[in-house]
Amino acid sequence: MAQALLRSRLLAPAGLVELIAEDAALARELAEDRACHGPLSYAAERLARSGDESLRARGAVVIEPILEVALDRDEQPSNLLLRRAFALDPDRFAERALAEMRRAPDDHQTHFLIVAWLKAGRSPDAVAAVVTRWLRAHAWANQSTSFVLGAWLSEGGDVETVRPDLALWLDRHAEIAEARYVYSAWLHAKGDFEAIAPGMRRWLCRHAEIEDASYVYATWLDGNGGVEAVAPDIRRWLDRHGEIAKATYVYAAWLDAKGGVDAVAPDIRRWLERHGEIPDASHVYRAWLGAKGAVDAVAQDIRRWLDRHAEILEASHVYAAWRGAKGSIDAVAPDIRRWLDRHAEIPEASYVYAAWLGAKGSIDAVAPDIRR
Q1: 278-306, pLDDT tens digit by residue?
Q2: Domain ranges within the chain, ordered by starting residue
Q3: Dihedral angle of Cα 6, 11, 15, 21, to the nearest 10 degrees
Q4: pTM, two decimal places
Q5: In terms of Cα–Cα distance, which of 78, 49, 81, 54 is closest to 68?
Q6: Residue 259 dihedral angles phi and psi, to the nearest 5°
Q7: Which of 59, 271, 292, 372 would suit a FRET pair with 114, their CA atoms being 20 to 30 Å apart?
């Protein structure tokens, strides 16, 4: 009965938690019956992914003591129960997760715990030795290695720790679709462009026109790979996908790389007509103005965007670019004021202050904010 209960999708996570909380016999069966541990791990995963922090906190009180007992009794070769318990409460199960990774650094399934550890924001240094051991054993692997490399690089891991393994993996798998995440993560971690350029070129030979090539084009251009080397590919990609939301990253990277406004202006106009008010349109506005695109061409779009998003953090880049393009400070002054009311003391506010003062905005209007 307990197994069926845990596997059922008819009972919402909140109802399941309260049912377990009210039935001590059920809680004991879940903890002690090894046949229940798989479904128990599934219940933990549902709570971890619920997006409801109050429910997650309630689940921690009810489910986590059961998970502790179950983990003590667990004899399965899989680390499924542990990694799902860790996902639910990284603080509580960190020592167990770290001990298991160090116990079995060469096991293929350890990559699940490595990725979970890194994605939870835990210290990369704590698992550096494990990552090195795992990659030496499995750098030939396909998707699982891309997950480890991507997580390590995206979450603050040192590029030199994985450089040899990255080279080995790219030699075999540079062309697989999942490699796009590794390329982006490598540059995000300040890895050198030369280490991944041949792999990206091979990748584009196979996937130049698929929708997700947007990540690779943005990575290539952001890494100073050069506009001319990918311009024909990007042209074909824009002809097919120029109006999808994620094209924002290609447009921004193209303009930042000095690909030229005229080459993409009609595409950007069509894109703005569909997506001009989404939060990520900030990338296009910033890059357009920074590339000396005409202010008047996007002024109305920016006005509508600010009416919806003037206070979000990313608006700081739009304000700075607007000022750099000699847009009127009066046109955005109320929006900047609203933004400062929320973000006046964060480091990124420096861009907004510089834009305001550079446009000869009133010093008195921002002096108290700058003082803070």
Answers
A1: 999 999 999 999 999 999 999 999 999 99
A2: 1-97, 104-182, 208-296, 310-372
A3: -20
A4: 0.81
A5: 81
A6: -70, -20
A7: 59
